[in-house]
Task: inverse folding
């Protein structure tokens, strides 16, 4: 894919919306190119839940495809999990209007989750696991070569922080991965997109959003708090969240602590000066050096 993917849809928009459209299309196009997410001949199965993010993903991929220098197919898939009150007609109606091939998979995971998870406990983890397994199977049945999910930059950062806070590991949410069953490539083309932009885009495009709370499950409180923390940082310290995200693609194993990633045990002096090595941020991190150290440093 190339810069052709930068082009937004051709419609007259107010300046702010035109900028938003351009940014969204550029960011998705860039993520697709950077991670080689979509190749010629791919059949991309776009998972559409009825939430704003997956609607936006489908919307933007369709418009990028029209300008892409390569040919690929899109099929939208929704899993109807039989939550009480799920408006089963909304997505088929929307997808039909859009003119995109689609498949609705009916599986009553709601009953399974209700039976297995104790009343009052959050059901999302099991629900997502079941959903994932079903979607992988459907991808095989439809002959899809890629599975596109609607996770965005803020989902990825939340996952990184939650894994640090509660899992004691440095692990985020990848933009591209091999599925658990080893049979599928999963892609996240919204990886560079922030959630606030998706909220605005959903309003502009009037997506018929279906809430993910029909099942009555409480949202994971830790995730809600982590999301709030990031939003708070973003408003108080503009640029910090963006830098955190960039940091995920700029890892220095020699300055972390994972002995499996870096051979600390066998480290030998090289005799070669590394100008960028151990100095970055020393001043900021450690504050002013103690007077004694300064004296020793400057003594002839
Ligand atoms: S809110 Fe309900 S439908 Fe959504 S992931 Fe959680 S359990 Fe599943």
Result:
């Amino acid at each position: 894919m190339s810069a052709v993917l930068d082009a937004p849809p051709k419609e007259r928009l107010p300046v702010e919306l035109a900028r938003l459209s351009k940014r969204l299309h550029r960011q998705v196009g860039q993520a697709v190119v950077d991670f080689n997410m979509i190749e010629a001949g791919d059949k991309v199965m776009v998972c559409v839940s009825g939430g704003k993010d997956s609607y936006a993903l489908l919307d933007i991929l369709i418009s990028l495809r029209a300008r892409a220098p390569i040919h690929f197919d899109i099929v939208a898939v929704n899993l109807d999990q039989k939550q009480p009150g799920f408006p089963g007609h909304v997505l088929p109606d929307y997808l039909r209007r859009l003119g995109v091939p689609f498949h609705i998979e009916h599986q009553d995971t709601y009953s399974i989750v209700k039976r297995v998870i104790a009343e009052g406990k959050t059901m999302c983890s099991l629900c997502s696991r079941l959903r994932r397994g079903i979607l992988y199977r459907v991808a095989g049945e439809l002959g899809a070569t890629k599975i596109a999910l609607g996770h965005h930059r803020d989902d990825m950062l939340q996952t990184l922080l939650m894994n640090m806070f509660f899992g004691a590991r440095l692990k985020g949410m990848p933009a591209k991965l091999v599925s658990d069953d080893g049979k599928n490539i999963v892609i996240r083309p919204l990886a560079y997109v922030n959630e606030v932009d998706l909220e605005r885009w959903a309003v502009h495009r009037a997506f018929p959003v279906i809430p993910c709370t029909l099942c009555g499950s409480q949202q994971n409180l830790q995730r809600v708090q982590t999301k709030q923390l990031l939003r708070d940082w973003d408003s108080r310290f503009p640029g910090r969240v963006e830098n955190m995200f960039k940091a995920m693609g700029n890892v220095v194993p020699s300055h972390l602590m994972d002995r499996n990633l870096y051979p600390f045990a066998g480290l030998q002096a090289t005799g070669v000066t590394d100008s960028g090595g151990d100095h970055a941020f020393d001043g900021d991190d450690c504050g002013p050096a103690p007077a004694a150290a300064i004296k020793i440093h400057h003594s002839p």
Observations:
- Residues 2-7, 286-300 have pLDDT under 50 and may be disordered.
- The pocket of iron/sulfur cluster is lined by residues 83, 123-124, 127-128, 212-213, 215, 217 (CB under 6 Å).
- Strands lie at 43-47, 73-80, 102-106, 146-148, 176-178, 185-187.
